[in-house]
Structure formats: C-alpha cells, structure tokens
Amino acid sequence: MKVNSEEYTKKPSRRQEAVNFPVVAIVGAGFGGLNAARTLKDSPVRVRLIDRRNYHLFQPLLYQVATAGISPDEIAYPVRAIFRKQANLEFLLADVTGVELDKNLLLTSFGPVHYDYLILAVGSETNYFGLDTVAANGFDLKDLDDAEAIRNHVLFMFERANLEVDVPTRRAMRTFVVVGSGPTGVECAGALSELIRLVLIKDFPGLKIDEARVLILERLDRILPGFPEDLARAAMATLAEKHVEVHLGTGVSGYDGRQVFLESQPPIPACTLIWAAGVRAESLVDRLGLPQGRQGRVIVQPTLQAPGYPQVFVVGDAAYLEDGAVPLPMMAPVAIQQAKVAARNVLHLIGGHPPVQFRFKDPGSLATIGRNAAVARIKGFKFHGFFAWLIWLGVHLFWLIGFRNRLLVLINWAWDYLLYERAVRLITPERRK
Amino acid sequence: MKVNSEEYTKKPSRRQEAVNFPVVAIVGAGFGGLNAARTLKDSPVRVRLIDRRNYHLFQPLLYQVATAGISPDEIAYPVRAIFRKQANLEFLLADVTGVELDKNLLLTSFGPVHYDYLILAVGSETNYFGLDTVAANGFDLKDLDDAEAIRNHVLFMFERANLEVDVPTRRAMRTFVVVGSGPTGVECAGALSELIRLVLIKDFPGLKIDEARVLILERLDRILPGFPEDLARAAMATLAEKHVEVHLGTGVSGYDGRQVFLESQPPIPACTLIWAAGVRAESLVDRLGLPQGRQGRVIVQPTLQAPGYPQVFVVGDAAYLEDGAVPLPMMAPVAIQQAKVAARNVLHLIGGHPPVQFRFKDPGSLATIGRNAAVARIKGFKFHGFFAWLIWLGVHLFWLIGFRNRLLVLINWAWDYLLYERAVRLITPERRK
After folding, report:
1. A195 touches chain B (CB under 8 A)
2. Residue by residue, what is the 3-state secondary structure of chain A?
C-alpha cells in the first residue's frame, strides 16, 4: 500500500485550507485525547487525532460487558461520529509505534506523521508485575475483546460444569477469582456474584449455589485503597452480603488455568482468574527516553510538558505528577482535567504566552458493588448504600457519550433491575479465518 | 474432564423425574429446533435440545449486523432463557459430530447422547461450490462472527482508503462485491450502499462518492429467483436508484483478496467479496449414510421421517422434500412448519398413531432493499415500495424473540431512519490470546 505519508510528514497540507495553522497531534482517543481535541475545537490549529481503535471506549462500564449486562457497542462510540462537526480535526486509525521527539515526528503503522505540538494521552495497560503465567492464563479487562472473552468464558464454564460429574473439577469450574480490590475488582466481583446468584441460577435449575464462588484476592490489608477507610468497611459488608469472599493480605504468585498459586497459602483451584490488580503507563512511553516514575509514567512538569520538550505534553494515566506529595491517581477525572489544561497550554504557547500549571480538582470517587449498593466520596461527603448507588447510576449515564447509548444502557439496566436478567448471556464465536 | 455421559447414554435419568418418558433429541436451536421443542412443551417426553451455540440466532437480520445497523446481541437470544419455563427440556451446549442411527445414539463433543426419537434441525452452511479461493479470501454470512468480520472489514477499508494515494488501490478498497442475488445478497448490497452513501460520506468529508461501488454479481439472467418476475424487476429498479450495480449472467471463478475473477469477463479489482450465492445442508448429514438430494439435503419421506429410520426426522434446510415437482425452499417458514409437524409426528408414534404427511402453507416471501423499499409476495398479492417495506418491518419485529430485542432493534431502526446513522460503526478487536 502506498500511503500519502508525505502529506502527513510535511507541514503544508492539501487537505485542510488552514495550511499555515500549526499541527497539534493527539495520540489516544480515551478520556484524555477526547477532551484535548474538544478543547481545541474553534482554535486556529489543525488537530490530528490518532488511535489504534476507531471508537472511544467508556471503560468504567467495561465490567458490565464482561458480566453479560450490556452490549459492547453501548459503551463504544465511533471517533468520527464524535468529531463530525469539528472541522479542524482529522482522525487517523493507526498504531503509534514511536516518537522522534527531536524531529517532531510520530512513527505510525501508516508512516510518519508530523506535528508542531504533541499531546500524548495514550493511557495505561495491564500490569502483571512480571507474573507471566497470570498474563498467559488469566483475563484482564482493558478493551472490548477482553470483556467479551470473560463473558464467553464464564458462561462456558457454567455449561461445562453442568455436564461434569467430578465434584472438585465442577467446583473449580464454578470458582471465579478476581485479583485486586480497586473499583474495577470490586465492581467486577459484585456483578459476577449477582450474575450467578440472580440470573444463572434460573438458567441451570440443578445448580448447587454453594458450589459457585466469587473471590477477591487482595495483597493489602484493606480493599478500595483510594477510598476512605469507613467506605471500604461498608463495601466489605456489602460484598459479604453478596457472597463475595474477600481474602486480604493474599498475594498471587502464579496461575496455570486450574490453580491460583498464592505467596504463602495453599493454591486455590479455579478455572477463571480475572486480573484487576494493577495498570501501568502504555508501553509506548518506555521508548521515548523520557524520565519515568512509578508504573512507568512519564514525569511531567507542573505544566504537563515533557522535560526538555516544551512542545510535548503528556496527560492522564501515562503522566506522573504529584499533588502535594501524593501521585495523582490513574483515573478518568485526572485525564480529563489534564487534557483540557494541556490543550489550553498549547494555545498559550502558540499565542506567545507562558503555559499554566495543572491543579487537580478532585470530584470524588465512586464504586458500585451491585444492586442498590455503592460507595461514594464527593467533596468531603461520604455516602454508601442506595443513595450512593443512585449517584453512581446518574454519573455514569451522564458521562456516557451519545443519547442512543444512554437510552440502550438505561433499558438494559432497567431490565436487569426489574427482571433480574442479564440480557447479553451469549457465548459468541471467535472468527478463526 | 469427566463427563456424565452415562447419564445421557442410558435411558433412565436421575435428572428428570419422568424417568420413563421417551427421550426426544433435537439437534439445532434454529427456527426448526426451537419450534420442535416448543411443540413438545406439555407432552410426556424428555426433550434434549443440543446446539453448538448457546443462543438462537435470528438470521434474517444478520446482514444488518454486517452493515453496522444493529448489535449482535439484538438478534441472538440465549436458548436457556427461551426454555426456562419448559420443565421437560434440557439444553446441551455441544457439537454433534455424528449419529449412530442403528444405536439411537448421538456422538457429541461431550460424549454420546441417547435418544428414542431424533429431530435433526441442523440447518445449512455456506456452499462455495468448490471455489476454494473464494472460501479463503471472501466473507460469508451465516453466524455472528461472520457479520462482525464483514462490519470490521468494510469500515477498515474506508479508513485505509482514506490514507491511500494510489487511485486504483483506493478504488479497490472501496469496491464491495456481493455474489448472489437471493434475499440475503440483495438486502446486504442495499444496506451496504446506504451505509456508504448516507452515513460514511459524513464520516469521511473528503470521500469521492463515485470511487465507492457496490456490485451484485449474479450467474443467472435475473435477480431474486424465488420471487415473481415483476417483483424482481421492481427490485432491480430500486437497486439502481440506490447505486447498486447489478451484473447478470456473471459467474465468479475465483478471488485472491484483490481481484474477483469471472468466468468470461475481465477481473474486477475489489478488496471485499461477500459470498451469498448458495447454501447446502450442514455437512453433518453427509456422514449419516442417508440418501441425499440437491445441496446435500436428506431426502425425507412426506412424514419427514428418514428412510429406514422411522424414529428419525429431518426438518428445514437439511431436509429435501418436493411440493409438486418443486423442492421446498431453504427458508425459515418451511423449517418452522416442518418442525411442528415432525414434533407432532413423534407424539403420534409414541401414542401408537400413524404419522401425518407434511403440507407446506406458503406464507409468501419478503426482501428489503433499504429505506422505504421492499418487495413482498403474500398469498397471491404482490407489493413493492413503501407499503412492502412496512410489512417487512412488522414481520421481522414480530418474529424477533424477546421484548428487549424488539425494543432495541426498533430504537436502532428509528435512529437509522430518522438520523441517517448506523450506530454500530465499530472496528472491534479480535482476541488473539
């Protein structure tokens, strides 16, 4: 294939009329990239938004795809649809493989792409902390295919267990281990337990419910490390009500697909392990030669600029910045706020003004454990139970992109809530060709 | 894995109370299998429904998944959810690999399964008529993964073409060849053309619309062979309005992924070929040693019994039966009606009564070409245009299983119709692990 890389390599472009406007490349169409691009909407720049997916993924609800509650397309929105009316933006579906920082050049699967300013919003990837057997035999939860793979596998285990006479094997098929107790781990375990105890029990009339177990394994001595202690205790109580077994102080050392090996306890027989114990900056940033902090995140200046490259900004999960002495968490609100500041700083630089420093305004934290149950910390106030759950519902519906997606998710939630159903209980085939 | 195959091999069963009731195995959860199982709902039999998928697929709308209009889960319904209230039915997720007709035994991926009566409703598979290069490089449209693969590929071709400077290559990327002009081919081509001309043109502002082509290649001298001549002519006119190029008398001889080779014309450069030119009975029936007619279909008696095996019934696409001198078509209405008769004949045999002969009541045929356009033949009446399209909409919504699926499909159709949008324009990743 001949790619018109010239066009993207050289500054002048035939495509856009505003040939003399500077090019702002944004890598990643997650929460960061999206908000950076929108901030530049009416500015005299040419935006090149690059992602290896053609959709923006609403990751906070990914665990609901994994637990058969909603459909993948309800939390994915085509990037081109989002930016249809933003005339100064061009979308490129490409994998960014490197950055030549000294040449202002992105290396992509479709050839080099020039930029005058760069906003890296590449996000994070799963961190297995070197546990290769877990990476090989466990599931993670970062993209739509991961979520569908979990859904297919969980449902398939119930089908197989239904035909299995050997009791230990059958129990292992119905044991689901979630490693890590951040919001993703807690939400995933709660939703799995409800899927089994409220829905699958109706699908499998012979199911002995005490043979089905959902476990959370957490290395630390508490769950939900980002939340206040009392909310974590409330969440522990709710998890117990929902029959999720939480094992604190339990580190995982390996997984062979049949047994979860622990650091200082006997192994747990389980045919399913979901790894929600950590993320790290997308590995692309390892190849940039920039200083990196914990979890491989690029240590940025308070203006979000990369040290030594004032035209390069890093935001969101891929950026390391401290607030007080505490590193900013790898969460959507940080990415969104940083992206807006980075985009405004690009405009400041273009206008000859100094960039401003980023200051995080913490909107709080939310996590749901299932029906009628959530924990919420909002501006110093703390809630748990039904009211926190209503806040959780409202916030997630509000942030979801697109009226259709909101409507369809709401219908599925109502279905689930009123009828105790999970509509997407499908074991979908994977194309082998 | 130890499977409790004994339980399924021997007649007595711990599982079901009615241990002395005869076992009716039904292979396939398509239109045939579903209707056979439902017909046996309150009868003194034990039904074992077996399918390699855990869902019933509403195939008539599969082309809408392939053209980004609806989501896979909206036309797939979990088998266990359908039969939750049918106490005499047990579902087995398994691949049936053979039948030992003399031993009343099904061979499956989970071990042998005994039956007293068997209803084979295994459906059909794509018939490439020995064109291996087409099978290797083209797409077919039989299951959800096929439809998603087409959707991903079509959207990806537009992304690639957008970056391609070589005009012939770019044109080939935007050329979509549909082979075959039955309802599937016509509906698929019409929906593709509308996807490009009404939706993607908004996603790609630089798109030269005359570089995008949708072709139907038909070996015969007319389209829609199952429809009356005048309706086929009306469909031809509508296809022309929708910029679908129909090439009659054009047989395909091969496809290398870049060029479609024709029997007596120069090749057509095209990066996409969708094969909708034929189906044949599922290859399982080739291994049964039963007499087969055209398209590998098992030649059944007028009672739908397999010759020599009165306890075995074959229905739907896998069965060959003539109505007058004309073979019954491989269509849902035939499968549904035959399944009901086969199930009733099983009950007749159990009750010591003779089985009845099958008589097809033709409800007519329907095909849509896109917005406001369809052809319909119903009990001697023929319609085309807007009214036929309304009939098409109503009939398909009616036959779709589940209130939620109907609601979601209706929302997506309204979206598409009112906003000229296709919501599911996603290039989803395929899990490689």
Report:
1. no
2. CCECHHHHHCCCCCCCCCCCCCEEEEECCCHHHHHHHHHCCCCCCEEEEEECCCEEECHHHHHHHHCCCCCHHHCEEEHHHHCCCCCCEEEEECCEEEEEHHHCEEEECCEEEECCEEEECCCEEECCCCCHHHHHHCECCCCHHHHHHHHHHHHHHHHHHCCECCHHHHHHHCEEEEECCCHHHHHHHHHHHHHHHHHHHHHCCCCCHHHCEEEEECCCCCCCCCCCHHHHHHHHHHHHHCCEEEECCCCEEEECCCEEEECCCCCEECCEEEECCCEEECHHHHHCCCCECHHHCEECCCCCEECCEEEEEECHHHEECEECCEECCCCHHHHHHHHHHHHHHHHHHHCCCCCCCCCCCCCCEEEEEECCEEEEEECCEEEECHHHHHHHHHHHHHHCCCHHHHHHHHHHHHHHHHHCCCCCCCCCCCCCC
Higher pLDDT, A119 or B421: A119
Q: Are strands A272-275 and B381-384 parallel, antiparallel or unpaired?
A: unpaired
Residues (pLDDT < 50) of chain A are 1-2, 5, 10-16, 433
Position B2 pLDDT exceeds 60: no
pLDDT category of residue B430 using cuts at 50, 70 and 90: confident
Residue B338: which of B323, B360, B355, B318 has the closest Cα? B360
Lowest mean pLDDT among B158-162, B265-269, B421-425: B421-425
The SS3 assignment for B65 reads helix
Residue showing tokens 């090749």 = B267
Which residues on A lie below 8 Å from B426 (Cβ)?
54-55, 72-73, 76, 78, 144
Question: Which class is B5-52+94-126+280-350 in CATH?
Answer: alpha beta
Choose the closest CB to A169 out of B1, B164, B411.
B1
Identify all chain B residues contacting A408, using CB atoms and an 8 Å cutoff.
408, 411
What distance lies between CA A312 and its chain's CA centroid? 24
Q: How many residues does chain A have?
A: 433
* A421 in reach of chain B (CB within 8 A): yes
- With an 8 Å Cβ cutoff, is A415 touching chain B? yes
Residues in chain B, how many?
Answer: 433
Whole-prediction pTM: 0.93
pLDDT: is A162 or B432 the higher one?
A: A162
pLDDT at B9: 53
- pLDDT above 60 for B341: yes
* Percent above pLDDT 70 for chain B: 95
Q: Does B55 touch chain A (CB under 8 A)?
A: yes
- Say yes or no to pLDDT of B1 above 50: no
- At residue A404, the pLDDT reads 87
Specify the domain boundaries for CATH 3.50.50.60 within chain B. 5-52+94-126+280-350
Q: What pLDDT is attached to residue B403?
A: 86
Q: What is the mean pLDDT of residues B399-416?
A: 90
What's the CATH number for A5-52+94-125+280-350? 3.50.50.60
- Residues pairing with B78 in the sheet: B55
pLDDT at B10: 47
Set of chain B residues whose Cβ sits within 8 Å of the Cβ of A170: none
Cβ within 8 Å of A, B 200-229 = 202-204, 206
CATH 3.50.50.100 in chain B, residue ranges:
132-277
| pLDDT digit string, tens, across residues B68-117 | 999 999 999 999 999 999 999 999 999 999 999 999 999 999 899 999 99
- The answer to whether residues A174 and A158 touch, using CB atoms and an 8 Å cutoff, is yes
Answer yes or no: are the C-beta atoms of A410 and A397 closer than 8 Å.
yes
Three-state secondary structure call for residue B413? helix
Give me the mean pLDDT over the B242-256 stretch: 98
CATH number of A132-277: 3.50.50.100
